[in-house]
Design a protein that fits this description.
α23 crosses α24 and α23 packs across α25. Helix content is 39%, strand content 18%. The protein is of the alpha/beta class. The protein is extended. The strands form five sheets. Strands 1, 2, 3, 4, 5, 6 and 7 form a seven-stranded mixed β-sheet that branches. Strands 9-8-12-11-10 form a five-stranded antiparallel β-sheet. The chain contains 25 helices and 21 strands. β6 and β7 form a beta hairpin. The longest helix has 28 residues.
């Protein structure tokens, strides 16, 4: 992206313009003079801070001497942490070093700083004095976001051109400032280029820029920032934002910043293409990356499943807490066990407890344990809780969303201090336990409704793994079906297969019970499978007869007039379907209801392709 200067062009500091009030003109500008330019006028700094472009200035000693607010925001840093520091320490890999060594402009299409995590598109420009001596480097960092609303308060705008032209003229954005009488008091080089004017001809004259007058009038009259205004000039779509200049609560002028939206749209399109590429490469990584051995027992090749397994595998090698989200039967505990088995705690215990299965009193004693005599019926010698039993290993809290607010407070306390005190006891035991939780509840909604503690949520949800429903990864159904066929193979060793028609029906079903329901269906079908092959009629009737729901109320649907033989055949076909459905897939009962022999029944079933 062009930032308003030609390639290889440096910024030359003219000492006569920087200090025209003195009769003596220094031959070369010093580093102290640059500092004076940047800091002696706080109001001018406010103008720099209003721009949506990051600015960083480095002296020839490679020390950072100025950063504006946008630069601080982009990198999420403070000025105190960077000013006076070596630029390579704050921004390793920066182009400032190359500029100071070569004296050439450098534009980087994209650079990511590992120290701050920010990805930016910077341009680095050398700064030279009147004798072409290199005295510093200026970075302009482009941020892709909307302009921020800013109210700029200044005492004087008469010296903007002299003090800040070296920076403003390097910007691609058009900047023009007017006083309360709409007279131009400042215009940068981009404005002069787009308006084809000369600064001497427009300075202190009425602004004559087509379309700007209404925007400026509204800003001055209302003393409010005006943004999202569009102008069309020379086949360019321009976006305008204007700020009031306020001194002692009185509007004294207005600053307009104009940007070519065409460039932004092109950049947006490029970012969208990059996002698509990133998504593509992410899928490639998920499809090729080998997961730890412990995760091999989790069946699934779909992208959404592999993505979540990759997240779980990365979390496994750390000690951070993990929250597993997903519907019932999706396989949350399988993932929890895989995380434990892949962690450094794999030799320690894995203790699981269902928080929804016990009332508060029992759950409290189960989690934290109790000492002898703590309550009536307490076991002699006391009993250790799940936290104690899981010491050195992993504690899996299933259905955490069903835990009462009282128990949530107890759990939060132990997670904060990692210390356990048994019910009725006096000794405090330090714990070394990794906690993995799971829930199928909408925790965020529960937090809003006051049913789940927000502080506990953030304690437990360091890394979130979301197990997709089976209906979201139907491509995994054949793999899962074959896995369960092997798991529940008959004792006599006879291999069991599943027909293509039966598999098609499995893939058409929505599976509200998820993988657990599929496992039950396969186990049941193996019992009824004939000749070692699971056919559609071996599956539960709610799977293979669901497409005939509309035919339950009527045995015969004739439709248009047709030959009597065809009507009879259609009647037989629908009657057989209905009989099988009403018999709950029991073929013997269906034969009996239809008064057909076994041979005749299967002849007609095959004839009409019902099964």
């Amino acid at each position: 992206m062009d930032y308003g200067r030609s390639k290889g062009e440096s910024i030359k500091v003219d000492s006569r313009k920087l200090n025209n009030s003195e009769s003596r003109i220094p031959e070369a500008i010093s580093l102290e003079s640059i500092d004076e330019i940047l800091f002696q006028n706080a109001y001018m700094n406010a103008i720099l801070d209003s721009l949506d472009i990051g600015i960083c200035l480095v002296n020839k000693n490679k020390e950072i001497i100025f950063v504006n607010k946008e630069q601080l925001k982009i990198h999420n840093i403070t000025s105190e942490s960077v000013l006076g520091k070596q630029v390579s320490d704050i921004f390793p890999g920066t182009g400032h070093i190359d500029v100071l060594e070569t004296g050439l402009c450098i534009t980087k299409d994209e650079i990511k700083f590992v120290t701050t995590g920010a990805t930016v598109r910077p341009k680095y420009t050398p700064i030279v004095d009147c004798d072409d001596n290199l005295i510093g480097s200026l970075a302009l960092v482009k941020a892709i976001e909307d302009y921020r609303e800013v109210s700029i308060e200044v005492k004087s705008i008469k010296n903007i051109y002299e003090r800040f032209s070296l920076i403003f003229n390097s910007l691609q954005e058009v900047i023009v400032a007017v006083d309360i009488m709409r007279n131009v008091v400042y215009a940068n080089s981009s404005y002069l280029k787009i308006s084809s004017d000369d600064i001497k001809r427009i300075l202190n004259k009425k602004l004559s820029f087509e379309g700007l007058e209404p925007i400026i009038t509204s800003t001055l009259d209302n003393a409010k920032t005006i943004k999202n205004n569009s102008l069309l000039l020379q086949n360019m779509h321009l976006d305008v934002i204007s700020f009031p200049i306020i001194v002692d609560e009185v509007v004294v002028g207005c600053i307009c910043i104009i940007r070519d939206v065409t460039e932004v749209e092109a950049l947006t399109a490029r970012l969208e293409r990059t996002a698509h590429l990133a998504e593509y490469f992410k899928k490639q990584i998920y499809s090729q990356k080998t997961l730890p051995t412990a995760f091999e027992s989790i069946i699934g090749n779909s992208d959404c499943m592999k993505e979540q397994l990759t997240i779980a595998a990365k979390a496994a090698v750390t000690s951070c807490r993990v929250m597993i989200r997903g519907s019932n039967g999706a396989g949350k505990e399988l993932i929890a066990r895989a995380i434990h088995a892949s962690s450094t705690r794999s030799t320690g215990p894995f203790i699981a407890i269902n928080c929804a299965a016990l009332p508060d009193a029992l759950l409290e004693s189960e989690l934290f344990g109790y000492d002898e005599g703590a309550f009536t019926g307490a076991k002699k010698g006391g009993k250790p809780g799940k936290f104690e039993l899981a010491n050195g290993g992993t504690l899996f809290l299933d259905e955490i969303g069903d835990m009462s607010v009282y128990m949530q407070a107890k759990l939060l306390r132990i997670l904060q201090n990692m210390e356990n005190e048994r019910i009725g006891g006096t000794k405090v035991q330090k714990l070394d336990v990794r906690v993995i939780s799971a829930t199928n509840a909408d925790i965020e909604r529960m937090i809003v409704e006051g049913q789940f503690r927000e502080d506990l949520y953030y304690r437990m949800n360091v890394v979130m793994v979301t197990v997709p429903d089976l209906k979201e990864r139907k491509g995994d159904i054949p793999l899962l079906a074959n896995h369960f066929l092997k798991k529940y193979a008959r004792a006599d060793g006879e291999p069991i297969k599943i027909s293509k028609d039966a598999l098609d029906l499995l893939e058409m079903y929505d599976w509200p019970g998820n993988v657990r329901e599929l496992e039950n269906v396969i186990e049941r079908s193996i019992v009824f499978a004939e000749n070692g092959v699971i056919e559609p009629f071996h599956l539960p009737s709610n799977l293979w007869l669901s497409e005939f729901e509309d035919e339950k109320q009527s045995v015969v649907i004739i439709g248009k007039t047709k030959p009597l033989e065809d009507i009879v055949m259609e009647c037989e076909k629908q009657a057989i379907k209905r009989a099988i459905y009403e018999a709950d897939n029991n073929k013997s009962k269906a034969m009996e209801a239809l008064k057909l022999s076994r041979r005749a029944f299967y002849y007609k079933v095959n004839k009409y392709g019902i099964l």
